[in-house]
Design goal:
184 residues, single chain, two-stranded antiparallel ribbon, mainly alpha
């Protein structure tokens, strides 16, 4: 596979979405266990507007910055964050962004419903990875056991309604912004 060089525009857009994702971590509504933030919204927009490769790269850069110690995650940053049960959601953001971008890039007619389906696919990945990581870290690493019902309640039922709204918002905004970003 041949490596593609990034253009200045692509680097700028990746950096822009990395910053937006970091800012989204601090726009939050406190709910028990997993706070509701705007990170999902910005990671979806990265995939939708930048595509799979650049979108995932921007979110991956966000994760690397947080792990190196910059306080860009919802609860700070640092290498120790790998042991935080909610780190699985950050890993899910990377893969979810890639899938969302992959499902919508190179589409002839990008309808609202196609974008929304891609957002829901990304959302499912984020929650699956987040909840699996939360369960494994809590029960087998940090000795703070959580059962399946409390995991489902706190890490899905309480958080997903807001994220579903973000999926609709991102689909509407991406449909209008994608042609603009493509023309840059």
């Amino acid at each position: 596979m041949r490596r593609q060089k990034m253009t200045a525009k692509e680097m700028t857009l990746c950096a822009f979405f990395t910053v937006l994702t970091a800012v989204g971590a601090f726009i939050k509504i406190p709910i028990p266990v997993v706070p509701f933030t705007l990170q999902l919204f910005f990671t979806m927009m990265a995939g939708l507007l930048l595509g799979s490769r650049l979108g995932a790269l921007s979110v991956g850069l966000y994760a690397v910055l947080g792990l190196t110690g910059l306080p860009v995650f919802a609860d700070g940053g640092g290498f120790w964050y790998l042991l935080k049960p909610t780190f699985g959601y950050i890993l899910g953001f990377i893969l979810g962004t890639y899938v969302t971008g992959r499902m919508t890039e190179n589409q002839e007619s990008l309808t609202f419903s196609k974008i929304l389906a891609a957002n829901f696919a990304g959302l499912a990945i984020v929650y699956a990875m987040g909840m699996l990581y939360y369960y494994l870290i809590s029960n087998f690493v940090i000795d703070a056991p959580i059962g399946l019902w409390p995991l489902f309640l706190y890490c899905f039922l309480l958080a997903v309604p807001g994220d579903i709204c973000l999926c609709f918002l991102a689909a509407g905004m991406a449909r209008r912004l994608k042609p603009v970003v493509s023309q840059l």
